[in-house]
Amino acid sequence: MRITPVILCGGSGTRLWPRSRASRPKPFLPLVGEQTLFEQALARAGDPAVFDPPVVVAGAAHLRHVRAQIGAAGRARIIVEPAARNTAAAIALAAASLPEDALLLVCPSDHHIGDPARFVAAARAAADLAGQGWLVAFGIAATTPETGYGYIRRGEPLGAQGFRVDRFVEKPDRARAEAFLAEGGYSWNGGIFAFRAGSFLAELTRHRPAMAEAVRQAVAAGHAEGDLFHPDATAFAAIAGESVDYAVMENTDRAAMVPVDMTWSDIGNWQALHAARARDADGNAVLGTVELVGCRNLLVETDGPRVSVIGLENVIIVVDGNEVLVTSADGAQLVGKLTGAMRQ
Amino acid sequence: MRITPVILCGGSGTRLWPRSRASRPKPFLPLVGEQTLFEQALARAGDPAVFDPPVVVAGAAHLRHVRAQIGAAGRARIIVEPAARNTAAAIALAAASLPEDALLLVCPSDHHIGDPARFVAAARAAADLAGQGWLVAFGIAATTPETGYGYIRRGEPLGAQGFRVDRFVEKPDRARAEAFLAEGGYSWNGGIFAFRAGSFLAELTRHRPAMAEAVRQAVAAGHAEGDLFHPDATAFAAIAGESVDYAVMENTDRAAMVPVDMTWSDIGNWQALHAARARDADGNAVLGTVELVGCRNLLVETDGPRVSVIGLENVIIVVDGNEVLVTSADGAQLVGKLTGAMRQ
């Protein structure tokens, strides 16, 4: 069994503004540790004993970041999205570019995974089920009642390593999220999927025939340029963008899940990034020239100016170029609505 | 009666760091309104019907600021302190350079006074008593139990406008400050004094004879250079620096005070500056490109970068060149101890 990683590089760069920008979105930043999230995504799925060279799906605006960071995964194929059309179409481009029986592992590159070995083990389990025709979601151990994630309710077991999906649940409110945790049987949907290329395209054709046809045309009329593949822009632009969850996973009767507990975060805002970072005994995580006096649970990072902080708790401070962000931890979810983040 | 303002320009530039710096201390910054504190000090004592041209006492490092800001008070004499030796010696330099019967009004230039008309009225009352040989302190209406100010306890009345000083009280703890307010009869000592040049020098000679002699020598051996006067550096350097309160006011039996209520602040830290500034309905005071979302009682100022703030209360944020300060209001008193403020 060989697995082909499909690395998705999306994102508008607003929720981790001002570090992330439209021109330099989240995957291409070293948010946790010294590697960027994209580099970490490649490295996680980089063991040649398990994985074939990846397929990277990225917008033209971000190709320079992909080139600069692709490193040892240099044999990757890169599919250049002619326009942003959400994950269903991006995955379909990869699937339509690969043999029907290729086993795809779809990996968003804007997440953090603390335990890569468990990721690989789950990938193998998911690929096993995918080889039997299932469309398999990673069901990530839900450790807190998050309201920012979708959930997966597990159904009947499928052998030793997985389950049918009983249903996908959209982002719940706090009370429902707490009920999910109390009840058990619910996992987070992290957007990581495994399936055969042919299985995915068959289900896409069944549930979103127009999208499937447009992708086939875009690939048929596309052209290669070295390791780049450019799908036909006109055919692709006609697609109505939809997430793979809405377009396929919530509709197919072949949905399965494999449970995995791998210290996962989608780093959806600065508060989540703070939680994913290494912190000192006072809960502070700092990068750059920073002096803290009497502070607890701070995230402070600066690309140049010294930042001196006194007497604050649960605050996030980011200095990046000509922008300074200071927010309460709770306020972090509103960062994307700031003028600076919106008008990029 | 004519009064000669003696404008003192001192300060190490640490408590309002990073806006104030050693090279650009508090008096020379537009901290409240569009004029600098030094310009406001000159303007307050600028009515030619009452005041003679001022004597400005400043260090050599700050002459360029004095020159740039002295404006309409261009007929000022400027005494260049050869070294920083605290207020007693600085005032003595001015007194020894003026006729014995000149009425001096000593004005620190790092304070804010909201009601200049009351300042002038008090200056006239103080000058009246000074003309009778008293060394007169402004007794500023104590409106809150401040622990950062010295206090003056009033004694017997001296005519209609003033009182003998019963005693000067050093910075009290909170409980004593509250007791002072409850008891009445206590005012803040704002470092504003009136006396005849001769009276001051006589009391200095009585209580600090070595300092008085060193100042006389420094003036006698000094030299003029246009409107500048340079006291002799060697003689002046020998002085042990002391505040005018310690050296003279707390020792003399000719101490008087005039009460004045003029919305005064020494702007001793960022929290005090916030209180002196105009604020919006949410208590926020901002300067520069700033976006606030759900914030109350913030002071935010930036000399360039945009500052975006979400969900904070009672916080001070200052962006100045290569320094960013973020402090709780209570933490403002610790700003002078920051590495950036200390290592200038």
Give an overview of the whole structure:
Two copies of one chain form a homodimer. By secondary structure, chain A is α/β, with parallel strands linked by helices. The first copy, chain A, has two domains: about 260 residues, Spore Coat Polysaccharide Biosynthesis Protein SpsA, Chain A, CATH 3.90.550; about 70 residues, no CATH class. Helix content of chain A is about 30%, strand content about 30%. Chain A contains eleven helices and 19 strands. In chain A, the strands form four sheets. A five-stranded mixed beta barrel of chain A has the order 6-9-7-8-12. A four-stranded mixed beta sheet of chain A has the order 14-16-18-19, covered by helices on one side. In chain A, strands 5-13 form a two-stranded antiparallel sheet. In chain A, a hairpin with a 2-residue loop joins β18 and β19. The first copy, chain A, is globular and about 60 Å long. The N and C termini of chain A lie far apart (about 45 Å). The mean pLDDT of chain A is about 95. Chains A and B meet through β17, β18 and β19 of A and β17, β18 and β19 of B. β19 of chain A pairs parallel with β17 of chain B.
Features:
five-stranded mixed β-barrel; four-stranded mixed sheet; Spore Coat Polysaccharide Biosynthesis Protein SpsA, Chain A; alpha/beta; homodimer; 344 residues
Can you describe this structure in just a few lines?
Chain A is α/β, with parallel strands linked by helices. Helix content of chain A is 28%, strand content 30%.
